[in-house]
Amino acid sequence: MQLLVNGKSYEVDVDEETTLLSVIRHDLGLTGTKYGCGGGDCGACTLLVDGEAKQSCLMPVDSAVGLEVTTIEGLADGDTLHPVQEAFVEHTAFQCAYCTPGFIMSTVALLSRNPNPNDRQIRAALTGNICRCGAYVRILRAAKAAAAKLGPKGEE
Ligand code: FES
Ligand code: FES
What does the pLDDT look like over 81-130, one tens digit per residue? Predict the structure, then answer.
């Protein structure tokens, strides 16, 4: 089957029940998307499918055919980080960083549909992502900083 990932087309020969996460990591070698719980509980495997945050451990790969998949590797523009990535770095919004790609992808999805979210909306959008290191305060700070970088100016 044919997959479109980070703007590139890939032909993959896998069982259609294989998870999208497994194909992304093992067949395409895009290991920025992490395996955590494998059951939809941690958000480590979050990527974008047609711009929406999805837990790829729950998606059979064939459900992504014909859709645009974006992983953490697809966010940067060459050497220039995406503003959400920049904000996470600037606010050191991680400790071990295992959860970070998932949080960043959920934040990107949130800001694309709501460029000026309040704290409650950020928390709600990130509720499916778990940080075992407890970096939540800095993650929230980074998400707000990313919104300020990307969002409409002049709104409180
Ligand atoms: S690995 Fe997918 S939600 Fe935990
Ligand atoms: S920084 Fe370690 S799990 Fe979040």
Answer: 999 999 999 999 999 999 999 999 999 999 999 999 999 999 999 999 99
Alpha-carbon separation of residue 120 from 65, 82, 138, 153, 155 (angstroms): 34, 23, 15, 20, 16
**Cα–Cα distance between 90 and 88 in angstroms, integer?**
6
What ligand 1 atom has the least distance to the C-alpha of 58? Answer: 2
Extended beta strands in 25-109, E state: 46-49, 52-55, 68-70
The one-character DSSP state at 126 is: T
By three-state DSSP, how is residue 19 classified?
strand
Fill in the DSSP letter of residue 80: B
Substitution site in 131, 139, 140 for ligand 2 pocket (most atoms within 8 Å of beta carbon): 131
Tokens, residue 41: 């509980």
Between the CA of 153 and the centroid of ligand 1 the distance, in Å, is 35
Q: Is the pTM of this model over 0.85?
A: yes
96 lines ligand 2 (CB under 6 A): yes
Q: Comparing C-alpha atoms, which of 31, 29, 53 is closest to residue 43?
A: 53
